[in-house]
Amino acid sequence: MKICVALLLFVLGAGSACAATRIKDITDVKGIRVNQLVGYGLVVGLNGTGDTLRNSPFTQQSVQAMLDRMGVNIRGSQYEPRTRNVAAVMVTAELPPFATKGSRFDVTVSSMGDAKSLAGGSLILTSLSGADQVIYAAAQGQITISGYLAKGAAESITSGIPTRGRIPNGAIVEQNAPGMSVEGMPLVLELRNPDFTTAVRIQDAINAYARQRYGMKVATAEDFQSISLNRPRGLSTTRLFAEIGEITVDPDQTARVVIDERTGTIVIGSEVRISTVAVAHGNITVRVKEQPKVSQPLPFSRGETVTVPDTEVDVHEAGGNVETVRGASLRELVSALNRMGLKPIGIIAILQAMKSAGALQAELVVQ
């Protein structure tokens, strides 16, 4: 798997305490949730980068079915479509809570076949349904992608993922989102990152505010994730959540390292600690080069000109330096890894090995 050369290393508050955060930024109200939607559709208008219909039969069948609905019959005709300007895609989205008819939201479009890029394409009207098979929205529009593909006769360059994109506000709600009203929902806040310390801090902050504002305590930490609330008399649920959501607390942070092997992204929390350990790392590079050659027959030999393969394989192993990594803090860990001059793939391998050796005092999450 190709790892991006660029390393994106986020240091979360290294060497400093967490900043105060609003309660509404770290909690959800129980009962308020999004609903996952999915649909199947076609993207048209691609500049020769769409599916190969011969290799993607579902795309050809979908094109034929779409033309049938529009009154164009190409079944049984002498010439089958050979266009590469269309691609079959899956459309996914999250229906916001309390979404009503006519409201809009973003959708994600992902290629299913062998399309090279969705750049410049437009999604044709696609129905989006939930897990209950009910159609809640319809999506259509111009796709925007972050990656690109450029190719010539003998070489191509791909950056990012050009076969996936988004349509901002591309879906329109056709049926109201399922769920209860605001006034009928349970008054419970749920932490997005469950933690006993953070739950107690939120309880204390809310009660300190409520004693001054309402003259009573309203919050109780039920466990490491839930904080129940008592609504003061004469106060609406909407106003209660609005006022409580603006209260700031200092959330506690779990020691965690998150690795995305696909993009080479590494995120290391400020609470991560490393036990003393010696690290040696060496890279093996294998380069395979194809240079086809043309073989010409001798004059009057009645032979044929043929192309013969010529493969060159080069293996290079870089020397691995031994470094002692010890660290009471994240700053020392990052400094030690930088001294070794490692690329993202090397840092990922070392962090995984440290975890296996018991030297990484944090949760390791590999995505």
Task: Tell me what you see in this structure.
The protein is an alpha+beta fold and 367 residues long. The chain contains five helices and 25 strands. The chain has helices at 57-69, 196-213, 237-245, 330-339, 344-357, and strands at residues 8-12, 21-22, 27-29, 35-44, 86-95, 104-111, 122-129, 135-142, 148-151, 156-159, 164-173, 188-191, 219-221, 226-229, 248-249, 256-260, 265-269, 273-281, 284-290, 293-295, 306-308, 311-317, 321-327, 360-361, 363-366. A six-stranded antiparallel barrel has the order 4-5-6-11-8-7. The basal body constitutes a major portion of the flagellar organelle and consists of four rings (L,P,S, and M) mounted on a central rod.
Question: Keyphrases for this structure?
Answer:
alpha+beta, 6-stranded antiparallel beta barrel, single chain, 3 domains, 367 residues, disordered N terminus, 5 helices, 4-stranded mixed sheet, flat
